[in-house]
Write a structure and sequence with these properties.
Strand order of the largest sheet: 2-3-1-4-5-6
CATH architecture of the largest domain: 3-Layer(aba) Sandwich
Distance between the termini: 54 Å
CATH superfamily of the largest domain: P-loop containing nucleotide triphosphate hydrolases
Low-confidence stretches: 24-40, 171-175, 204-217, 240-254
Strand content: 15-25%
Mean pLDDT: 81
Number of domains: 3
Length: 447
Amino acid sequence: MFTVVIVGRPNAGKSTLFNRMIKSDDKIKAITDKLPGVTRDINYGVAKWEDKTFTVVDTGGFFPEQKAENIIQKQMLEQIEIAISEADLIIHLLDGKEGLVPDDIETARWLRQTEKEILWVVNKIDNPSKLSRIYEFYSIGTEQLIPISALTGYGFEELIEKIIERLPLTQSLKSEEELPKIAIVGRPNVGKSTIINALLGKKRMIVSPLPGTTRDAIDAVCTYYGKKYLLIDTAGIKRLSYYKREISQQVYVEKLSYFKALRSIERADIAVLVVDATEGIVNQDQKIAGIVAEQKKGLIILINKWDLIPQDERDRKAKIFAEEIRRKLWFVDYAPYLTVSATNKTRLTKIFPIIDQILEEYAKRVSTSELNKLFNQKLKDVVLSSGGKELKFYYITQVDVEPPTFVVFVNDKSAVKQHHIKFIEKLLRETFNFEFSPISIKVKQRK
């Protein structure tokens, strides 16, 4: 798909423009804030304009290489280079409110060296009365500037028309929304971004020993034996009490990241929960698994950093983890788990056959005749006593998929307890091979 990459200084309005271009409430939008450097990773989205579709890439703030002061800033530059290498068109976004600065000229010089086509766009021009702001930008070395306001939409249609003019006459309209969506979730600094980078074979996500490096929910397409998956890297989910401490701009941005991580789980088909092998299953891991379970999403547990466990301790540790998962994550007992090393890329690709199996089960539909054949064999004429009430099961039907959802009809809904539901779930799993997928069972009282 035709790819447009947005590049510019920190706080020039790149994420605001990105959000306007993908313009859909059901997409996870890039975090925007007045704090410079909020966007650290590259963020992918699909823009649709009438019958045209193209990919938009939001990048972290660009600054000359000699000004990169730490590992994160250096990796931000590496990621921008990767994004630009994939670009068909670059938007150099300039800050019309702050005016032309030396870094803009240096960025323009660097972009020209890529030999990619570039649109020079001056942002924060809210109305025609502010058009005079753009004139100084001509000294950047271009004959055409496009004034816009990413915030209000002024000049936005003209920018889109310039992009549409450059689209190829024919292109695939297959949207990334059609791909299986896999959200990588977990506490801060457990290795989520490293796992995605290893799977992609590219440094798409910034990796650092600093907790909280990923602030946004970042999408990337991964191909495994010809099949594509949309991987979603999310910010580390901290304890909710963390976000209730003294309000500051930093906490505000991190709280947005927290809710974006939750929304990433909502739109995913499967969540991959990454836990730290050196720490075991902790309370926050349980809470994140609980969020996934409540939303009835597929779940895979990756025990990462297995390379840090001494070789002679691994068998014992594996047994400890199996027991911890059984005891602490009992409510997702259908979820498979793997020990992996993102750093050494050990056993990571084993998740793809599991993902495929979950997706198949997640979309599976069982006929009413097959379901009631099972009921007739196991529950016909069975009358149970529950709290002094007589409970009788009549029949069962499947009403939905993703997740597979079943409705059981009984004589007295109030008499149905959790252990009855678990018994029926066990029957369904064993009989119809729902090994790893979550399933939902609802109860209705027959009148």
